[in-house]
């Protein structure tokens, strides 16, 4: 068991009475809700302070660093978002230029806004076979750094939400030739490096900062994550200063104990747990190989903990499959797109749960076969070749950075000037003042300051027609735009 959890339960069961926060006073009967009030404390004597850790929390973070092989690891209790914000802002000055993978999570774009950064975009490869956004190519990183000698940091996501892994080791080598840091959003790869079945983590591949969401793929409570710092290129003190600002000054000991328990579990019995997990994954993947119409999708460099079930060429959409699995089989998928659903797995999965998924998918596969028998063919999904292409990320013209367009729009609104909401069909060529994205995965389809293209409009309309909720927009079917250009 983790030392922090042991100490918290010992304190809960002691005769110490607290005249301090929190207001529930560790009284587990106060609301009758059965919540863990007994171990929910504030920074009291003997329990350290996350923002100035010298005792039990310092030791807990050191154990996490040793487990992942990093020079220094910080607990995150505001999720990977707080780590990404702190990493990007701690590695740049206001107004700097930054090289960013365009398939990064929205928190990267929020950091760009907060530090008024000028983004240069990297676009991942696109896998036509499965309609998956692929890896970031090291050649594209090198060309961008040659073309923009004033870039001050590089941010990529690996693995992606769908499990695609980039060549972090070679990308890090290229980035370091320019004396700048590589930040890897490895939120979905907290399980990397603990079994040969999975890729090695980006800490071992030379990244300067790596962010892991423990709660995504390991048995840890929601909001728990880790930020790893390595090498001498980054200013660690600067990154830590942003962590102090961005994370709450009242960190949850319940969450921190959850992090420590997760780390301790892997330390003590990781080999056994991951060995059993890999056997279960291989068993499940083997069972799904005989599907006739649905099929598993994966790219060459891939995290096989992700089960991506493609509906391509079945006449179904991902959202249809997700809905059927939920309503008919009571299986809740992580995410759906136009052509696949994503089932997230972890070491906590059971054989019973995996068998339910296998039976459900075979049931739906038979349903598709019956449709074929009745119609004489598999009905098409109605997409043209051009529509298929727009499921990849669309290269955007960045006219302003997000901070600049925000200032322009603020002035325009104040003066009742050239800011307005236009229907999607007439937005082509205008500059967006809003984000538009599907959540999950939270990758923007359009970013404030970008010129809206016809392809973006078609993508928005297509996702809307399929029944997806497009977030970030203030009004359905419209985008707030700057009409001054």
Task: Note down, in words, how this protein is organized.
- It is a single chain.
- The chain has helices at 3-12, 56-68, 79-90, 106-114, 138-147, 168-177, 214-217, 236-246, 253-288, 318-329, 351-375, 385-389, 402-414, 454-466; strands spanning 72-76, 97-101, 118-122, 126-127, 132-133, 151-157, 182-185, 209-212, 225-229, 295-297, 306-310, 335-336, 340-344, 397-398, 419-423, 431-432, 436-438, 444-446, 450-451, 470-471, 478-482.
- It is of the alpha+beta class and 485 residues long.
- Strands 1-9-8-7-6-2-3 form a 7-stranded mixed β-sheet, sandwiched between helices. A 4-stranded antiparallel β-sheet has the order 10-11-13-12.
- It is globular and about 70 Å long.
- The termini are far apart.
- How many helices? The count is 14
Backbone shape = globular
Global structural class: alpha+beta
Q: Report the β-strand fraction as a percent range.
A: 15-25%
Mean pLDDT: 93
Side-by-side strand order of the widest sheet: 1-9-8-7-6-2-3
- Proportion of helical residues: 25-40%
* Distance from first to last alpha carbon: 61 Å
Please give the radius of gyration in angstroms.
24 Å
Low confidence ranges: 384-390
Largest sheet: 7 strands, mixed
Number of strands: 21
Q: What are the SSEs and their pairings?
A:
Blueprint: H1 3-12, H2 56-68, E1 72-76, H3 79-90, E2 97-101, H4 106-114, E3 118-122, E4 126-127, E5 132-133, H5 138-147, E6 151-157, H6 168-177, E7 182-185, E8 209-212, H7 214-217, E9 225-229, H8 236-246, H9 253-288, E10 295-297, E11 306-310, H10 318-329, E12 335-336, E13 340-344, H11 351-375, H12 385-389, E14 397-398, H13 402-414, E15 419-423, E16 431-432, E17 436-438, E18 444-446, E19 450-451, H14 454-466, E20 470-471, E21 478-482
Parallel strand pairs: 2-3, 2-6, 6-7, 7-8
Antiparallel strand pairs: 1-9, 4-5, 8-9, 10-11, 11-13, 12-13, 14-19, 15-21, 16-21, 17-18, 17-20
Helix pairs in contact: 1-9, 2-9, 3-4, 3-8, 5-6, 9-11, 10-11
